[in-house]
Amino acid sequence: MKFKALLLDLDGTLVDTAPDMVGTLNRLLHRHGEQSVAEDTAAKHVSNGARALLNFGFSDAPQKPALKENLVLELVEEFLLDYADHTYDKSKPYEGMLDVLNACNNNDIRWGVVTNKPFMLSRTLLNGLNLLDDCSVLLGGDSLAVKKPNPAPLLHCCMTLSLAASECLYVGDHKRDIEAGNSAGMDTAAALWGYIEEDQTPEDWGANYLTSSPTGLLQLIQERIDS
């Protein structure tokens, strides 16, 4: 069956947001008298959001215990305020992702974003990258009462697009993305170019497809267009 919609995770799938996410983390570390972290190391935690990044940056495990909850909440608020001013300073779509989106636009395949990132930050990012106008649906982690791995956000998108789940492909770089897509009844593809931690094994996530690059995703979509 030809895909009628491509739904994408945001951080680590559509857009490389690590430069700005880790940039905010390092500014907070500096303000609190802590050492900065390397972007390539911290990037592995970006898909897990601000809280995970903060725990990584401020907790030098196993030497330090995890941050206390009240401090985490304060730091998350500080993080989000800073990041809101630097959402797309250096972030950009992964190489080849614009070709994927163009293929969708040129073949009547609608595309959208389903992310656990807060909605307004996601909207700001897509708008700053000139992607918002072509995006058919955008759902953030705070758009509904639940978020991934719950399939509800993906099913909500199906209703918005008036499509069956079987007509959609969901792509993400985290196990929860694949779990959500599978539970919703969609075909799923693991984005192996994303922020995958070293102890993760994407081949065990249960995705229908393992895509090593956006070029591979484009090939997959093209095959379904031509079939």
Quick overview:
This protein is an alpha/beta fold and 227 residues long. It contains 9 helices and 8 strands. Mean pLDDT is 94; it is low at 61-65.
How would you describe the overall organization of this protein?
The chain has 227 residues and is α/β, with parallel strands linked by helices. The chain folds into 2 domains: 5-16 and 92-226, HAD superfamily/HAD-like (Rossmann fold); 18-84. The protein is 43% helix and 13% strand. The chain contains 9 helices and 8 strands. It has helices at residues 18-31, 39-42, 49-58, 69-84, 97-106, 119-128, 152-161, 175-184, 214-226; strands at 5-8, 15-16, 92-93, 110-114, 137-139, 168-172, 187-191, 209-211. The strands form 2 sheets. It has a 6-stranded parallel sheet, sandwiched between helices. A two-stranded antiparallel sheet has the order 2-3. α6 links the parallel β4 (110-114) and β5.
What labels would you give this structure?
227 residues; alpha/beta; Rossmann fold; six-stranded parallel β-sheet; two-stranded antiparallel ribbon; 9 helices; 8 strands; 43% helix; globular
